[in-house]
Each structure stands twice: as C-alpha cells, then as structure tokens.
Fold this sequence. Notes:
The structure is a homodimer.
Chain A (H helix, E strand, L loop, with lengths): L9 E4 L2 E5 L10 E4 L2 H9 L6 H16 L7 H16 L6 H16 L5 H30 L8 E4 L14 H10 L5 E5 L6 H12 L4 E4 L4 H6 L5 E4 L3 E3 L4 E4 L2 H10 L4 E4 L5 E2 L16 H4 L13 E2 L4 E4 L6 E4 L2 E3 L3 H10 L1
Parallel strand pairs in A: 4-5, 4-7, 5-6, 7-10, 8-11, 10-14
Antiparallel strand pairs in A: 1-2, 2-3, 8-9, 9-13, 14-15
Helix pairs in contact in A: 2-3, 2-4, 2-5, 3-4, 4-5, 5-6
Amino acid sequence: MMNEPHLQTVAWKHNAIRLIDQTRLPETLHYVDIRGLKTLWQAIKAMKVRGAPALGGTAALGVYLGIKNARVKNISGLMKIMDEVIAYIGSSRPTARNLFWAMERIRRAAQRSSAKTVEGIKQLTFKEAQKIIAEDMISCRNIGRFGQTLLKDNDTVLTICNTGILATIDYGTALGVIYSAVKQGKRIKVYACETRPMLQGARLTTWELKRAGIETALICDSMAASLMSQGLIQKVIAGADRIVANGDTANKIGTYNLAVASRYHNVPFYVAAPASTFDLRLRTGKEIPIEERPGDEVTKLFFKKPIAAAGIGVYNPAFDVTPGRLISAIITDRGIVKAPYTKNIRNIIKG
Amino acid sequence: MMNEPHLQTVAWKHNAIRLIDQTRLPETLHYVDIRGLKTLWQAIKAMKVRGAPALGGTAALGVYLGIKNARVKNISGLMKIMDEVIAYIGSSRPTARNLFWAMERIRRAAQRSSAKTVEGIKQLTFKEAQKIIAEDMISCRNIGRFGQTLLKDNDTVLTICNTGILATIDYGTALGVIYSAVKQGKRIKVYACETRPMLQGARLTTWELKRAGIETALICDSMAASLMSQGLIQKVIAGADRIVANGDTANKIGTYNLAVASRYHNVPFYVAAPASTFDLRLRTGKEIPIEERPGDEVTKLFFKKPIAAAGIGVYNPAFDVTPGRLISAIITDRGIVKAPYTKNIRNIIKG
C-alpha cells in the first residue's frame, strides 16, 4: 500500500510565501518564508522552487507579494506596479509556461474586476493566486486519474527530472500518474533518471518515491537506452514546461533524448501536464525560448569541487524540445490527447 | 596549431609501475608508483588507471610485478604463480578485453619461450610487457592515421568518456583520431559528454583537449541528442572496451544511447580501437560480461555528499553494448572496418 504523498510545496503562510527549499533535499525537508520580491526571484533562479506548475503557484503568490504593500493613489497606479512585478518575476526563468500563465491570469482578473479600490484589487489578486493553487491540486489529481489508465499492473516506468509533489503544489504530473496507478492497486516500479546537471531526479524524485513507498531505482541519464534495449522499460512518462499547438514539448534537457530512445525501442513515451502548460500562441517547438543556465552547474557539482578543466567551454541548456511526432500521448487534466496534435490539442485546451 | 599531447600514462620506473593518478585530475597531474599487486588491483578498481589500452599496458607490467620476486624452484612453479597473478588482476574489471589480452599474450610468450631459467622467464615477461606498451603507442598512431580520413575540415565531433592519452599509453583511440585530424590541419571542434557516473569526459577529456589546444565544450550526457537535432554534430567517435566477432561493441555506459541517437539523426557513429580490443571468441555482444559498479558512484558524487535518498535502489552498469548495426565503421590500428562486420572483422583481425 502506498503512503499518501501529501505535502504542500508552495503556500501562503504568516504573510509570506512558504516554500520547500528543494536545494536542501534529500538531506533536509526545510521550509523558507519569502517576504521580498528579490528573494523570490533568487529562489526561483536557484531552483529552491522549480517544476512548471509549482512555479505557476509561486509566481501567482509573487504577484500579490509584489503589490500588497504598494502605496499608490489609484487602481491604474497599482496595475502599473503589477506589470513591473510580473516582468521582474518573468525574467527569472523563460521556458516554463505556467509561470507566465499564472501571472497573466491574475492580471486579467484584476483588469476585468469590478473592484473599485486599490485594496479591493489587492484582495482580488490574493484570492486569484489562492484559486490557482487550489486548482493545481485538482488538475494534478485529474492528470493522475486520466493517466493511470495508460499503466498496467507490473509496468516499469522510466521518468526524468522531478514531476511529483515538489514540481506542483502537492501531487504531481508524471509522478501523479504513477501515484494514481499505485493507488488503484497496480504494482509499478520506477526507474528515475538522475537528471543532470541539477540532479532533480536523484535528489527529489527518489526522495518522493521512497516516501510514498514506491519501488525505485536510480540511474544515470545515459543508461536509459540500455535499459530499454534489455526490455526493462514498459512506459516513459515525462512532465512538460511548455507544450505548443502542434504537441512539441519543452521539458528538462534529456527528455528529447528519452523520446528518441523510446521511439527506437517502441516504448510508449507520454507527457503529463495541466492545461496551464499549453501555449497555443506558439505553433512549433522552435518558437519556445530555451533557458541557458550557468556553465558552473556542469563543471562544478553544486558549485563546489571542479569536475572539469578550468576555462573550457560548456553548453548548458536547461530544456530541450521533444517533437509531437515522438510523443505517444499527452496526459492532461482534461483528458488524454493523441495525434494529430494540432487539432486535438486545440479541441481539449480551447474547448 | 595543436600542442603535441605527449604524456605517458603507464610506465615502468624505478622498479615500480608509474601511473598518472586519474582520480586526481583535472586538479593535479599526480603520479603514483605501484610496488605491490594489491595496490595495483585497487588502483585499477578505483580507476586511478582506466581505459582499455591503458589497462592492457598496466596489466602487462602487473604480471611482471607479481612474479618478479617469486622465489620458486623451477619454471613450472613460476608459471603457477603467474597464473594466480593473472587471475587476480583479471578479477579487477571484467569488461575491458585488453586487460586479458595483454596478460594472455605474456603467458603465451612465457610458455613458448626457450628460456631455461626462472630468471630468464622473469626477464622475458618484463620485455613482453614493455613490447605491449611500445606497440600500443604505435597502434594509437595508426588508429589516428586511418581514422582522421573520416573527419573533414570544420567537423564538430561528439565523444564520450576518455579515449585519449589517459586511456592508452600516450595518444588515444577516438581522441587520437581527433589529434591526428588536427595535426593534418583540419579544424575540429569537440563536444565532450561528461560521462556519468565517474565523469571521465568532464574530468579527463576536457583536461586533455584543453592541454592540446583543441576547442572543446562540455555537455551533460543527456544533451547529446538535442545537439544532434540542431545539426551541431557531424560525427560521433567512441572508444571500445571489447569488440566481438559481429561488431557488437562494449564501451562506457551511454555509448549505446549515443549510437541510437546518431542513427535517428543520421550522424555517422564510429568506434576506434586497437586490434587488442577485439575478442573473436565471442559471437555477439550478449556474451560480453558487463561490470556492475557500486551504487555509491551514482548516489554520492565521488563518495561524498549524498545526492539521492538513502537506501534507494541503484542500477549502475559500467558499460553497455552497441550492436554492430548501429556502428558506421570501426577504426582499428590495421585499417577501417565496415559492415558486414562478421566477415570484415575476421579478415582484418585474424588476417
């Protein structure tokens, strides 16, 4: 029996954003209270909080944090500050769609609001942020409910990065599918790719899955294809940072590599994400901005002892794009989408 | 112009095996003198010396180290000790063919020798070991000479693990091909896969290539497919730990993953190795023993701070097998071999 994996990754507590500091896992489950915008920006950049849906919730609360003490004369003054806050938070990480989606949603709610006072808009912003967080919890459970139908009893599932509790508000996308399948009584074994350079798979996914009592083996990213060739993997499920109109999906660097290996070995490759991860304004993955992160993440493990010669070049993209044609199905909170993606994504996301 | 990359990874000096301690790179170029068989075994196991051809040279000197002080009455007593030494050294790492090849060659030389005294056999053993080392230097230059014809001016080459000076006696297999191409005046850029878990690409290849003045960018292993999809890689060259009759090739874990990605993107995938890496007694890669190494290599970076939850499962094979059908050509010291491999390998290795 699975241990219920409840935890809340992002919450508003004591007039601050309370986050699990994910850089301290698996050693310590430590919470940080964030009271300033710059601290928030740094926490996002340093990946104290990460995972597209968790970033959505964090950014939503961040907008409120950024405007709550604004001393302005009128609503248009407040909206100007809100725009600055949104631009500032948005400059932290460019790829995750949910970050922008959440802040745009709050901005739109504020614009459309019938509130007549600055205080009224502030309150509305807070409520909308809380709503985004509450909805994410429901979304994840829906993703799990739909996605678990794709997993069979005794399946071994390969996954990358962390797509569980810690990547969302409290349940997960790709890991949520696994949690749901296990709750249905299916025996699922997981291989977790360690996910270089920041090792979210090793540090976070193994911690979460162990906590939930799910059998997990950690592998280096380069081992995945070898496991597939041995017939050890029945399904691959990844999360997503942004899914565009044709199904092309940006996710943690290495996801594309798994999709290619899955295709070669005829292993189904699934993506799991809420509707808020979709960006239908972009037609193909080529239009997705890909964050390049500091070379230090590769050359020094957690910025400590050097593991490469000094002064060499490093290429450190944080994400890659998996073309829709390599994705067997996209598991959303509104149902499972299959090819042809341009048509079927539009139907489920806009409909 | 390239800096001449001369260094000697393995040598007999002052009555000891002198090795570059590769676990201390890239920080320090430190030599260790090995005077005992147990120390040698541990140095091999801990990867102070690694790389199939370097292991061949080391094991050859190791046989001499193991018998040189043997106090036996006759040659058959010495041969018994030699067999024990060979079995003991061979128990350190099962996959690298050259390790066994070198020791078998010495044993055969001793058996066939006309030497009549224990001392004579000891001297013959020493000479044969020195010959193996000298021949490896020539082999590597031949591999480079043949292999460089496959590289064009302005090619960008992706490589995995370390296959250079440090993996051989002094020049390299896959990196030797690159050194030779650069020496011919070709402009070659290299992407080095960091090569988890032991990071030979990050620690050793970047150090070697920087020393040689070759433009190098370090990437995480999971990034390779993404680079190929962007058209950034013209060729992939890997080394080999063992190549069997049908071309199936065991090499550092992750090599197979690169071969699959290369095939998907129509990038030529080459293997470079001396004749001593071939094992024609085995028909397919399924027969190659694959070393599984301690899980600690994955869960603790260099056995220090944990990067994964305590007590989880780990799968840590040190090698994988790339089927011949995914290999565009095998670059040997006797020439370039292409498919059909079973026939063409036999011709070049036995012939």
